[in-house]
């Protein structure tokens, strides 16, 4: 029994050292919006901000107003009311009536073979006239000067697609879950490789996916993503495989996301991921992550080296979580509970997989999608034919 405990502690310690290394590389290698100078130009390229929104009456009004007040001189905002049954459509119409830069598209029906959000993005893109297109969720707030900083930097660096990691605000009870999730994201995915044209690693962000329209036109287009649940990341995959130059940046205080208002809403939102993989596979992966994230705790039940290793791992884990939170402009206090976020996050993912198994599919944005249909449309983690320059599904 003691040997198994020592093994668990050693594996967990190695895992946290790996995360520390990956995080240090990300901090050193990813550009920050705060470090991008705000330029003065006689003319700016036109930018279309596409905002898909379904039942977003709580966030939409204030979030869109921050983008309109952001200060970009050549901005149009296309709000897509995606079959909402709350006041989202009315709020969007009032925004359009008060500011000529806002256009509203009302979607009344979802065509077969499309996920609602991706279809809403496509409808917004159809109305967009910009040289650049920013796909951004309805609960995102931008600080003044964000778009001028990022577009000037992208044009100077020759980048076609910029994905930004947002900072987040959330209820205190949700903060450990969200900061743990983003810490694992920045360490599991080698984000510094996103900017390397020779690397296969690609990424996207639902909070902030800024795309040069000409690069999007060289890709198969959003129809290629029409049944991809993780459309934000998959957009990055599609663009990079189509030859677009890509970069991941840290939005920090310039790109802010209002996280889900409650754990129940967060739980329902992630139900859409349940059919991606089988329930046994999800359970196995979560079990391994629990061992890696929290296995060091077992060392405190043993005397001698195992206990000392557990104590050292706690110090490394807490420091890593604190550094990640500070870097991403997120709450720092969850660092006192390093690894604890895997418990609620794991529960949500396992629950989603089990529900999808029982239902035979997922219910998302008011539409049911059978498991076979969901998996046939997945673009992430599946072997796909090489993307050419022509548009096709």
From TrEMBL:
The keyword Cell division does not apply. InterPro entries: Glyco_trans_2-like, Nucleotide-diphossugar_trans. One of its GO terms (molecular function) is transferase activity. Coiled coil: none annotated. The chain crosses the membrane at residues 279-299, 306-324, 336-357. Residues 48-164 form the Glycosyltransferase 2-like domain. The keyword Ribosomal protein does not apply. Gene3D superfamilies: Spore Coat Polysaccharide Biosynthesis Protein SpsA, Chain A (3.90.550.10). Keywords: Membrane, Transferase, Transmembrane, Transmembrane helix. This is Glycosyltransferase, catalytic subunit of cellulose synthase and poly-beta-1,6-N-acetylglucosamine synthase. It comes from Nannocystis exedens.
